[in-house]
TrEMBL record:
Source organism, top-level taxon: Archaea
Pfam families given in the database record: CBS
Native source organism of the sequence: Halolamina pelagica
Keywords from the named record: CBS domain
Identification of the protein by name: IMP dehydrogenase
């Protein structure tokens, strides 16, 4: 049975909020100066309502927010299935769900973009388990899984390029505390353990550009008593890949999933 993705894994935890006594003019200025189109209204961490740019239209600029905010709002719980949150977002026609705990305190916010992201790139336990089974089947070796912090400088990439558009997406996630763990294969073929980056190249490069030195990772450890040269090691060697600095960044227009009108004509 596959593990379900929970809202708490994809929500933004650092949430911008406003007070009920703030004025319409105050909040309108904050919206104009940011990339937000609305804010949860809170008293401390308790959610009292939500105010959007639409709620401010035609309102007196000196009016307090509690007079224009929506009080009966739809919220999500941190343990809620992301797919269920997607259904709520779709059926309600809203773009963001405040996430509240059992006490009604704000713990985060999840958007339709977060929901899409949860289905595109996930370092799930199932993905790790499938990779472990593949290694065992192909190379007849013993493996086990560890959760570690790994230094980006120690990683050997196994793909030679990433795409600029996706790199920007991963950068945004990192800046908002949304990074997925990397997936690493640790193979002790000599005195030094070789750390092969198998999933998360975009995340690793985005982190490196932000000056992040370490990341959380699922590490699949190949038993030291079963030394073996993995196929992806040969691939990295043949492509001249020894560090993430060797990975090329390709413009988004060349991404294999992207079509342009010029290419379609």
């Amino acid at each position: 049975m596959s593990a379900k993705a929970r809202v708490k894994e994809y929500m933004t935890r650092d949430v911008a909020t406003v007070d009920a006594d703030d004025t319409v003019d105050d909040v309108a200025r904050r919206i104009a100066e940011s990339d937000h189109n609305g804010f949860p209204v809170t008293d401390g961490r308790e959610v009292e309502g939500f105010v959007s740019a639409r709620d401010l239209l035609l309102a007196d600029e000196d009016a307090p927010i509690f007079t224009v905010m929506v009080e009966d709002i739809v919220v999500a719980h941190p343990e809620m299935d992301v797919i269920d949150a997607a259904r709520v977002i779709l059926r309600s026609g809203i773009q963001k769900l405040p996430v509240v705990d059992d006490a009604g305190n704000l713990t985060g916010i999840i958007s339709n973009t977060d929901v899409v992201r949860s289905q595109i790139e996930r370092a799930t336990p199932e993905k790790v388990g499938e990779l472990m089974e593949t290694l065992q089947h192909i190379h007849d070796v013993d493996v086990h899984e560890e959760r570690r912090r790994v230094r980006l400088d120690d990683l050997v990439p196994t793909q030679d390029r990433v795409y600029a558009d996706e790199l920007e997406g991963r950068r945004y996630e990192l800046e908002h505390g949304l990074a997925e763990p990397l997936v690493i294969i640790a193979n002790a073929t000599g005195e030094k353990e070789l750390l092969l980056l198998t999933d998360g190249h975009h995340r690793a490069l985005a982190a490196d550009r932000l000056g992040i030195e370490e990341m959380d990772a699922y590490v699949i450890v190949v038993a030291a008593e079963d030394p073996v040269t993995l196929g992806m090691e040969n691939t990295a060697r043949n492509e001249g890949l020894s560090s993430i600095d060797d990975v090329a960044v390709v413009d988004y227009a060349r991404h294999p999933l992207i079509e342009t009108t010029k290419r379609l004509q």
